[in-house]
Amino acid sequence: MQTGFHTDTGLRQDNQDNGLADPALALFAVADGVGGGSAGEQASACALLALRQAVQEGLSLADAVRSAHLAVEMLQDALGVEDAATTLVAARVTEDHLDYAWVGDSRLYVLSDRHLVQLTEDHTVARLLGEGAAVSRHMLTQALGAAPGDGLQVDTGRFPLCGGERLLLCSDGLHGALPRDKLFAELVQPRDAQRTAEKLVTTALAVGADDNVTVLVVDVEAADMPATDASMDHTPPNHDRNPPDSPAQYVVFGILLAVLAFILIFFGY
Question: Transmembrane stretches, by residue range (predicted)?
Fold first, then answer.
């Protein structure tokens, strides 16, 4: 797998986005932090560290996202703040398919056979109310560290792979600035993953992107695929509230404490 990552502060004062590309785990993610000061940046960094550690420990992608949510809540307690939160979209290549999970409005697209498919659905008020609603596109219904009263909803799905697909994970700074046809036009160009990520960001900035812009491009090559039949159907997203006895609540507290300690040291607390 070849990867390309690029991020830019854009018109904002701080960049609260973060990305994760771990080819050894075949794990890729983008997180868009929410919160005043450096709280959003810390939340997104914390979530990605917790996600990676949880996947390394063998948790499912959905439970790894839940553990990231717990890590952000622990960060809030440690900092004495309530507004540290983050979106998260994560994808993992496993054998002949792509598992993915998300919370918030960071998106995952897959370019396959010259068709661009958006796999995620935004957790935003605008999406709930429909097109034309007089609300900000940035208004989330949930995020890691900011779950609604009935619990965090981790949406998951699965997409078949046969090699040759191009994945795009991005923050809303990209998809809020560039419509689907513009994304497609850039993704189909014969550029490597890094140049494609950079071009997407610069194109979004050129048309006036008003937010941090973060892009992670992953090229899945045929050599990455096992010699099996990848004809499975695309599994629609599963909308799953955090169950009360999720293993993420019991297995990963040591991981979370280590992640929290790293974040606090890194940011000078």
Answer: 248-267
Question: What separation, in Å, do the N-terminal and C-terminal C-alpha atoms of the chain show?
Answer: 37
Other CB atoms within 10 Å distance of the CB of residue 12: 16
What are the beta bridge partners of residue 217? 4, 168
Tens digits of pLDDT across the chain (269 residues): 999 999 999 999 999 999 999 999 999 999 999 987 789 999 999 999 999 999 999 999 999 999 999 999 999 999 898 889 999 999 999 989 999 999 999 999 999 999 999 999 999 998 788 666 556 667 899 999 999 888 999 999 999 999 999 999 999 999 999 999 999 999 999 999 999 999 999 999 999 999 999 999 999 987 776 554 444 566 666 666 555 445 445 455 565 666 666 666 666 65
Find where tokens 């050894």 sit.
24
What is the signed CA dihedral for 40, 32, 158, 123, rounded to 10 degrees? 90
Max Cα–Cα distance, the chain, nearest Å:
51
CA distance 207 to 15: 19
* Residues contacting 197, CB < 8 A, separation 6+: 4, 5, 6, 215, 216, 217
Residue type, 77: D
Task: Say how far apart CA 176 and CA 156 lie, in whole Å.
Answer: 22
Q: Classify 34 as helix, strand or coil.
A: strand
Strand partners for 112: 115
